[in-house]
Amino acid sequence: MGARTELGSPLFLLNLKAYPRSIGTGAREMGRTLAQFSKMTGVSVAIAPTPPLVGLLASELTIPVLAQHADPFEAGARTGHVPPAAVRASGAVGSLVNHSEHRLPRDAIAAVVRLLEAEGLTAVVCAGDVAESRELAALCKPPYLAVEPPELIGGDVSVSRAKPEVIRATVEAVHQVSPATRVLCGAGIKNAEDVRRSLELGAEGVLVASAVANARDPPAAIQELLGGFPSAPAHRAPTPPAAAPGTG
What we know:
alpha/beta
């Protein structure tokens, strides 16, 4: 397998979930807008669309595309499952793992991270609090870990405002057991100030969903959120996504 694609840091990761506006042409429009603003601002970005759209967006966009979920299985007789090999074949460069809306047992988390790594893919492991963040970082040492208190997901108050101590403590706890893991902040991120505060508290990026995917004006929402990042020279730009097998 080839080298894993670097997503960059600090990172803006957009999870489209399966909101009505983000499961059809809206996903393509949001992806193109995100790519355009990334080029203009120099901010490192990535997008995670609903499973049926992963391959389409990966083939059309110039930014990294991730799956929203992967299963801890090798390719084979796995109807309805998403093995990491299929994620790679789609053209995606990684996957969310253990999102609060698609939780996995601990042994499955470790297994799917190993399989993603074997395929040269990037795992973004999700955790709900400081203790779980530390546990999962120690368990599988993922390249990225997103802390998202579940009670704040989709709400109007960001974790950076409601629970700033969670971000500081998570960064410290994760780096004690896995220094190379980059901590992302999620849950309730709504505007540039939420992003700015998250980075000031030690996060190396944000995981955003409803603020864009469910917004009345997604381009304006993307522009607003990217405004919370530092100027372009501070960013480590991502490498281009590797071509899917058979396309290069």
